[in-house]
Amino acid sequence: MVDVLALIDTITKEDNETVFIEQFVSDVRDFSSQYGSDISISYTAYNLAGKPSKYPDYGDYPQAFVMRTYGRWWKEAPSGVKEFMPQNQGTIISQDFIDVTFEQAVYPFQVNIYEIYNPGALVRVWARSLQGKWALLWEGAAQATRPMSRIFSPPLRTIQFPTNLLRLEFDHSNLEYYTELDAVCLVGTYKPFPENNLGTCHTLQNPIVRSRNGSSSNFSGLVSVGDITNRVQEMNIHQFSPQVDISNSISSFLDHEFPSLLKQIEDMQRATPNCPALPTSSSPPPEVPPHSANSGAFSTLPDESILHILGYLDLKDLCRCAQVNRHFRGLAQDPHLYIELGLRKFWHCVNPVSLQCLTPRLTYIQKLDMSWCGNYRDISPDDFIEFLEGCGKNLTHLRLNCCKFVTDSSIEKIASLCPKLQELALQNNTKVTSRGFFCLTSLHGLERLDFYRTSITKEALIAILKSSPQLRHLNLGSCMHISSMDEVVLTLSKHNTELVSLDLWKSYTLTSVGVNALGKCSKLEEVDLGWCLSLSTPGLSLNSIAYGCPKMKKIFLASMRCLSDYHLEPFLKNCSLLEQVDVLGCSVTADIISRLLRDCQHLKLVDVSFCDNISEVQCDSWRRQYPNVSIKQSYQSEAKYRGINS
User: How far, CA to CA in Å, does 508 sit from each of 95, 173, 237, 484, 512?
Assistant: First the structure.
């Protein structure tokens, strides 16, 4: 009898023990966002390298990895974006990822995620083979958990290749505050697991684990067993006789029984000539009815109605419909279904071949999202350019966040092939130099630019801004190569007065001179000046925003250490539409926040984390008094919040 809930030890039969290798992250290869900056170690992705430094403490620590956003707030802000082809997202969505590597490739048995603040955001774990193939190890919806640090160990599917590269995907859309990770541990073996466990989740009883330093330990209870599994074990229905050799049985059937079965069917058909012939391997395939004969009840509907129905399907289901018959293939590949195309969900399988297959359907495409696709040389710059040449002429919106194939040559082709472009998102594309960015000056209809964590320089950016008078949304967060953000903002105030949102987060060269100029952009509804360290003493510069931008809905002023009640006073008087306010780490008092909550009737979010003059008791009182406002107050470890395993 075989217990399918316990992995049989077939790996080290000589000494009846399974040896596992325990490794922590050796390097961070890629990520979509981080709260920290590239010139600091606080809150950065690279804090995931090595062993945990804070677990089991629970709280907000700069030694952890923290992503840029949380909750629904960024989506609801004036700068919020909508997904292209949103039906592709499915029920389990993600906004961020991180790729981590380990010293040695192993067959993964367990992945341990050390979560030390607001856990529960992990939704997928992927493994990449040495040959470049991705496999999904685990997927699950984001969890609502207790505010405690924990080691999260999701049950993994068995795969039949070793890996030293994992991708973790996160959905923090329902989190109350930023999630923080301390470390990631990969446990695996050098030899594959038995094939009869392929694709299943596994547990193991009393294995031996060896860490990278060579020490060994008994690792019993490696994966906790849930209530359903316990019930199955109690009923003993997981015990059954060993499986037959399926592959040999199928081969035997095809070699012996199948030919005789075909002969019997042909004899029956000769006896009953009205029955249609069954095709054999030597006969040509039957002619597929070109239209309604094979379409069932759909044959009663006009094609326009069927196209409307197909418009609700995601890309995967459209590909399946194209396999039904010739009629459905023509409909499922109709270019009108591909006005918008979102490929980010399918980043793991988008390659030059799939792009070539899609190109004939993209005659009318206007909005394309290829974010996260093609990394690790899965798509080359030439592959992307060839794809763009086939579908780029009508593009108005193009998102290429975290795409390593985006280079100067790619940007040059975008500028020449996409004259109608209104939106261009290039987050985390660090290979583009000034030569590439200057090419964008030929695009005069740009309304949204996202340059978060790119290498854009002051000179290239100013040139782009001068040629984009219709610009409405601009993200320059964590752009470390801009030598003078003041000059950039002065350009905005002269040439981009249609501006609605501006993200200058962690702009270390912005001073009060630049902030003063923002008041001339009277249509501004959102400004992020968080962690602009040269603004720690803002003086009177914020008054220009408060008086000059009465439509302001979101103002983030995190880490302005000298910002006091005096600096917020003008916003209470002139910005009655305020919805989101972040004064993390500022010197404001409870009095001004009380007035803000009282006077700003549209307020939805207030972050007063690390404000020394505001107590937790006061925040609790506000939450009771203003239940429709989300009031944030972050903190560091308390003993009662220390860790658990799950």
Answer: 26, 28, 63, 9, 12
